[in-house]
Design a protein that fits this description.
Elements lengths: L9 H16 L6 H9 L1 H6 L25 H14 L8 H11 L1
Length: 106
């Protein structure tokens, strides 16, 4: 697996597993992904992935502000999270993709 682009899709996980096995042993393993690859090539891995996608998430705590009947900071945080996830930057990439790419470079 490349450290620059983490595995996020099932088909990519299958491909990276086959790639690692071939680099280690010089032959395809005897499993379902290898059989699909032999029969249908890369298109077979993409169309019928078997691996589960890999997702990594973390939690960060924050100080809770005093309660106010006029404003709910949880709604502000939720709106900010949606803006972060859904708003593309000038290059057309979403901020989440950019953050994952920057984290993988570190």
């Amino acid at each position: 697996m490349s450290r620059f682009w983490p595995v996020t899709e099932s088909a990519q996980a299958d491909y990276e597993g086959l790639r690692a096995a071939v680099l280690a042993t010089g032959a395809l393993p005897a499993d379902g992904a290898a059989a699909r690859f032999r029969r249908r090539g890369l298109a077979g891995l993409i169309a019928w992935p078997a691996a589960e996608p890999v997702f990594a998430a973390g939690f960060r705590g924050a100080a809770r502000p005093a309660w106010s009947p006029y404003a709910d900071p949880r709604l502000d945080a939720l709106a900010a999270a949606y803006r972060l996830l859904l708003a593309p930057d000038a290059g057309g990439r979403h901020a989440l993709v950019r953050a994952v790419m920057e984290e993988s470079r570190a």
